[in-house]
TrEMBL record:
<protein>
    <recommendedName>
        <fullName>Putative cysteine ligase BshC</fullName>
        <ecNumber>6.-.-.-</ecNumber>
    </recommendedName>
</protein>
<dbReference type="InterPro" id="IPR011199">
    <property type="entry name" value="Bacillithiol_biosynth_BshC"/>
</dbReference>
<comment type="similarity">
    <text>Belongs to the BshC family.</text>
</comment>
<feature type="domain" description="Bacillithiol biosynthesis BshC N-terminal Rossmann-like">
    <location>
        <begin position="1"/>
        <end position="375"/>
    </location>
</feature>
<comment type="function">
    <text>Involved in bacillithiol (BSH) biosynthesis. May catalyze the last step of the pathway, the addition of cysteine to glucosamine malate (GlcN-Mal) to generate BSH.</text>
</comment>
<dbReference type="GO" id="GO:0016874">
    <property type="term" value="F:ligase activity"/>
</dbReference>
<dbReference type="InterPro" id="IPR055399">
    <property type="entry name" value="CC_BshC"/>
</dbReference>
<dbReference type="Pfam" id="PF10079">
    <property type="entry name" value="Rossmann-like_BshC"/>
</dbReference>
<feature type="domain" description="Bacillithiol biosynthesis BshC C-terminal coiled-coil">
    <location>
        <begin position="379"/>
        <end position="510"/>
    </location>
</feature>
<dbReference type="InterPro" id="IPR055398">
    <property type="entry name" value="Rossmann-like_BshC"/>
</dbReference>
<keyword id="KW-0436">Ligase</keyword>
<dbReference type="Pfam" id="PF24850">
    <property type="entry name" value="CC_BshC"/>
</dbReference>
């Protein structure tokens, strides 16, 4: 295995953010991943509930078997140690691959902080079990090598879920069938066959969607000391009651700060807004049944047709905190009110929406952590590398277009322009001759017959040209198939394949990875 790094960014804002430009960092409390900022954040006072937070994480993780590194980090967390954190929804069997890459980023940055700043930060992964977007997590994509095309594998595609996904009990039989489809498409590698049996056991052992996801993540990263935080747990909601109360009491200030800050951020940096929301409260209720955004009108809170006074809503919070959850505006705020964070790692969109929320943090008197972009990975099997070299294609940001241009050139080079021109010439000649027939025709009943005959000939000539082009492609099928496979497997639709494909397509563990340091470049992993 070899590792290469490449500047792969296509986003001007992210480029400037990574270069720590002052005009951007001012929206992130002037913090970046350097000695000065690390010392500043470490020097902040720790939350008073940190020991309780560590206890509930420990209680949740015990069923999966806590490793020694995890136990050590739980003790560090309980003592007020700061964390490096990232989060994501519970994608089907940890899909797509960037979920693992986000976790790897958290672990790598925590190790870097120890090496560079002599501080034992605790790596934490936040499972966004409160999210209810089932259609975003219920499927994955695998490349079908036999038919050389992308395949979508979905768990119960016609199912509709309105509750937070963390409260959904999966169908064990269907989940196993979904697993078998994925493994079959990924191939018959020995590591996959071993993994299949292990995951089948996990499916039987667990009940809820996020429990299974937690078990899979735990199995991969337990020896790295990763702490896994299930945000939808009732115990978490009980701990968050005071924080939700602050958000309800200050919902007007939060909304005004969000609108003001988003406008300032996007207009100053000339980028479109990332956060789109229809609420002015930025909280959900009904997480256990039908998750619905709260709104406030005429002094009353409304959700799913139910009206609450502020007192009634606070009483519901007191008795049933598990039905409350955050939306995109208040989730970062809740994270920082819960954890003593040193570094938050997010994708491009997450980095932007934290910038949009800078005024929200200010109005709530909550400190931001150091915000950094997660690491990105691409996998280059030796077969694909050799294939790209054969066709003189260079992997990079423009690879998808480069492959398109190659395909068009291959087809065009083999087309005989004289043949195509002759078909066009015959078509134009036929049009002229049929016009002459219409001029000579004096019998009305013949008009439709002549016109039908003309359309028939045009259809045949069009078919002749299309069939000729198809046959040219067919003669070049192997070459075109190779280039299209490269295009689909390396940069599908112009996006990094980590955003599309299942990680098992490339790997089943990270133990074979060489030591890595944090980088904003794309990490290219060359494999056999």
């Amino acid at each position: 295995m070899e590792i290469e790094c490449m500047n792969f960014s296509k986003d001007d804002f992210i480029d400037k953010f990574n270069q720590q430009e002052e005009d951007i960092l001012k929206y992130y409390q002037n913090l970046s991943l350097n000695q000065k900022s690390v010392e500043e954040v470490i020097g902040r006072p720790a939350h008073g509930h940190t020991a309780a937070l560590a206890d509930l994480i420990r209680n949740d993780m015990e069923r999966y078997g806590i490793s020694e590194p995890q136990e050590r980090n739980l003790k560090q967390l309980a003592g007020g140690r700061r964390v490096v954190i990232g989060g994501q929804q519970a994608g089907l069997f940890m899909s797509p691959a960037y979920i693992l890459h986000k976790i790897m980023s958290v672990i790598i940055v925590a190790k870097d902080v120890k090496a560079k700043y002599d501080y034992d930060a605790v790596p934490v992964f936040w499972i966004a079990g409160e999210d209810h977007d089932y259609e975003e997590v219920n499927h994955t994509f695998v490349y079908d090598s036999m038919h050389r095309k992308r395949r979508k594998v979905t768990y119960k595609p016609n199912l509709r879920i309105n509750m937070s996904i963390g409260f959904y009990e999966y169908d064990k039989k269907v989940m196993k069938e979904t697993l078998h489809k994925i493994i079959e498409l990924c191939g018959d590698r020995e590591d996959l066959l071993i993994l299949k049996g292990k995951v089948e056991t996990m499916i039987e052992r667990h009940t809820y969607w996020t429990e299974l996801f937690h078990a899979l993540v735990h199995d991969v990263f337990k020896d790295e000391g990763l702490l896994i935080f299930n945000s939808h747990l009732p115990e978490v909601r009980a701990l968050e009651k005071g924080m939700f109360r602050r958000m309800i009491e200050s919902h007007g200030d939060i909304h005004e700060a969000f609108m003001r800050g988003q406008k300032d951020f996007t207009e100053a940096l000339r980028i479109p807004p990332v956060i789109q929301t229809d609420t002015n409260v930025h909280l959900f209720t009904g997480s256990t049944t039908s998750r619905t955004l709260l709104s406030n009108e005429d002094g009353h809170f409304t959700a799913d047709g139910v009206r609450y006074t502020k007192g009634e809503l606070l009483e519901l919070l007191e008795t049933s905190p598990e039905v409350f959850s955050n939306n995109v505006v208040t989730r970062p705020l809740m994270q920082e009110m819960l954890f003593n964070t040193l570094v938050f790692l997010g994708g491009n969109a997450e980095v932007k929406y934290w910038g949009e929320l800078h005024e929200v943090f200010k109005v709530m008197d909550v400190d931001m952590p150091i915000v950094s972009k997660r690491m990105e990975f691409a996998y280059m099997p030796s077969r694909l590398e050799k294939m790209a070299s054969k066709y003189q294609l260079l992997f990079g940001p423009g690879f998808h277009q480069q492959a398109d241009d190659y395909i068009n050139a291959v087809v065009q080079d083999d087309i005989n322009p004289e043949f195509v021109n002759k078909v066009h010439e015959i078509t134009e000649s036929a049009k002229k001759h049929y016009d002459d027939l219409h001029d000579l025709n004096s019998q009305e009943f013949m008009t439709d017959i002549v016109e039908a005959n003309f359309r028939h000939h045009l259809k045949q000539l069009d078919y002749l040209e299309r069939r000729y082009r198809t046959e040219v492609k067919r003669q070049k099928r192997k070459e075109l198939g190779d280039v299209k496979e490269l295009q689909e497997r390396l940069l599908p639709g112009g996006a990094l394949h980590e955003r599309i494909y299942h990680p098992w397509q490339y790997m089943t563990g990270i133990s074979c990875f060489p030591p890595l340091s944090y980088t904003t470049d794309l990490v290219i992993v060359k494999t056999l």
